[in-house]
């Protein structure tokens, strides 16, 4: 298990069309003292990303209008956010889905339903390193 002490204050965006997934992720992240930005789909996320400047983005794959692969590719094409880690969320854990996520520029893949530990470990692995005081 990664050290979770470094994730407090990390700004995490969760993009998912499922209210249940968004709320569960929000509860887990808030308990770990992360700041959370929620988006219902790719368009909603793209509208919010510049204002909120998230440190890490979790992005569902199967969404209406703009799917997760398209959303991830658009985020990564923006020079301002190209280095922001994007973790794909999917209930499908196939090699094809993982490969397609990588091609779109995603940094990692988290299978749904995720656990609190799994979600926070992923945040810890990608959180910006805070300088030791």
Give descriptors for this structure.
133 residues, alpha/beta, Rossmann fold, 5 helices, 5 strands, globular
List the helices and strands and how they pair.
Layout: E1 11-15, H1 19-31, E2 35-39, H2 42-52, E3 56-60, H3 68-77, E4 86-90, H4 95-103, E5 108-111, H5 116-126
Parallel strand pairs: 1-2, 1-3, 3-4, 4-5
Helix pairs in contact: 2-3
CATH homology-level superfamily: Response regulator
State the end-to-end CA separation: 23 Å
Q: Would you give the CATH topology?
A: Rossmann fold
Q: What is the string of SSEs from the N terminus onward?
A: EHEHEHEHEH
What is the CATH domain class? Answer: Alpha Beta
Summary, kept brief:
By secondary structure, the chain is α/β, with parallel strands linked by helices.
Describe the structure in your own words:
The structure is a single chain. The protein has helices at 19-31, 42-52, 68-77, 95-103, 116-126, and strands spanning 11-15, 35-39, 56-60, 86-90, 108-111. By secondary structure, it is an alpha/beta fold. It has a single domain, classed as Response regulator (Rossmann fold). The chain has a 5-stranded parallel sheet with strand order 2-1-3-4-5, sandwiched between helices. Strand 1 (11-15), helix 1 (19-31) and strand 2 (35-39) form a beta-alpha-beta unit. The model has no long low-confidence stretch (mean pLDDT 92).
